[in-house]
């Protein structure tokens, strides 16, 4: 990664000049304006105190020292002590040619567990789960790319009061025909009916409670029904995950942690983290922690969400060599995770626990609900995206054959949905606007995919006209448009690091958008195939490198590319 390379050079130069005291991390940044060179460092200011010198003096000595290095065209002092660096053409070409892979961090001890998607059994996944699924998947890809070992877990909601209700509803109202055709939908229907009828008939909730107790005591009939619900729900989720190209290593549900809860209760009591209060077991927080007391076990012996969460952490810690656990859910679960993380800390459990939150999602024209007031299902959203993408493809590229059109519509439709989510700052609310997200212009998946396909088409044309890229570096970056593109390409690995640090895939999306824009400016203003061979080859290679970055980058967002569209 170019940033690390330059930072090392600055630190080394500083140590040569000022000795060991200067051995501190140098931070560099890309400049916003090429008038100030390509990169800038504030090392002179940040080390001034330690070196007991004035920043300008440090900067000017460093500038002289760094000017000797072959990688710089120019090194200058600016303002109170900034060091501005302009890269030498050859160094830039070399970096673009082989500097695109991120420097893998070597010392990742232990795995990062990412807990995302996590739908609730017997309910269809709706768009609310989309964000968790898509953001979690992208984080998984980003961390893997950086060399971390990642465990992807969908923490299914497969235990709790809804099962008592479902069992009652199933026995009373299930329509076997409808159930056969669309099991999860039918389960949802009878669940809603249960809620409606309960308002009139107080006997129903009571009956549900009884069935739940029977289930928890492993009554064989109820257990068999529960297993059936889990099974059919998992089949539906798996189809969706497959369609979205999303893969989990484990899908333990909350039920998996149920047998582990008594141990947690014991540990909480022994370490005096929880105490008895009005018959329940509760953890209280300090006033400045500003958290409600967390109930671990109710008076009637029932465990709660937080209890199973703690058991889950303990299980993971025992099962894997863990370094970090990351939870991706909407912001409404913020206090739940704050409570749980605090309790884990008090128990002396030593991992990094991170809650990655996101905002709500709505449609441009109205809510995410159908006329009947139901929430739109993820399945329907995806098929609508693919249908709409197909219309766009028919219009843009009528000559494509039908098989290709189908494939392009899927890749573009699903890509557009994912990108509309991932390109935004995750904490903001997302507004789905079909026309905007499927547009070939602007910050959209189709724009990036189209830029990629355009380069592939250029590549095919080059081949047809006999222009073949030889092995090795033929880059000859001579004009400003090429240079701007090259510099943007070099930002890519760093953007992946930043995205991982902040758990924000939109940082990668922004970089890809910048690259695509710069590429299109390059493509529209500079001929490639019409030029003499050395220039044509250099521009072709720059194009191919751009396509490589776009493809890798889009994959980090879980988005595919196609060779023509
Ligand atoms: N099933 C929960 C829901 O749909 C999300 C679970 C998130 N993961 C966790 N470990 N709590 O709201």
Provide a concise account of the structure shown.
This protein has 565 residues and is an alpha/beta fold.
CATH superfamily of the domain at 378-556: Isoleucyl-tRNA Synthetase, Domain 1
What Rg is obtained from the alpha carbons, in whole angstroms? 28 Å
How would you describe the shape? flat
The level-1 CATH class of the domain at 378-556: Mainly Alpha
Straight-line N-to-C gap: 32 Å
Task: Tell me which oligomeric state these chains represent.
Answer: single chain
Measured by DSSP, the beta-strand proportion falls in 5-15%
Characterize the biggest β-sheet: 4 strands, antiparallel
Q: Helix proportion of residues, in percent?
A: 55-70%
Bound molecules: arginine
Number of strands: 13
CATH topology of the domain at 378-556: Isoleucyl-tRNA Synthetase, Domain 1
Average of the residue pLDDT scores: 93
> Helix/strand-derived class?
alpha/beta
Structure description:
The protein is of the alpha/beta class and 565 residues long. Among the domains are: 2-87, Arginyl tRNA synthetase N-terminal domain (Gyrase A, domain 2, 2-Layer Sandwich); 378-556, Isoleucyl-tRNA Synthetase, Domain 1 (Orthogonal Bundle). The chain has 21 helices and 13 strands. It has helices at residues 2-18, 43-51, 55-67, 89-98, 127-145, 162-173, 176-181, 183-200, 203-216, 220-244, 254-257, 261-270, 305-319, 334-346, 378-396, 402-422, 434-437, 445-464, 480-502, 506-525, 533-556, and strands at residues 28-30, 39-41, 72-78, 82-87, 111-115, 150-153, 275-277, 280-283, 294-297, 322-330, 352-358, 361-363, 430-432. The strands form four sheets. The protein has a four-stranded antiparallel β-sheet with strand order 1-2-4-3. It has a four-stranded parallel β-sheet with strand order 6-5-10-11. A three-stranded antiparallel β-sheet has the order 7-8-9. The mean pLDDT is 93. Residues 115, 118-120, 155, 157, 309, 327, 329 line the site of arginine.
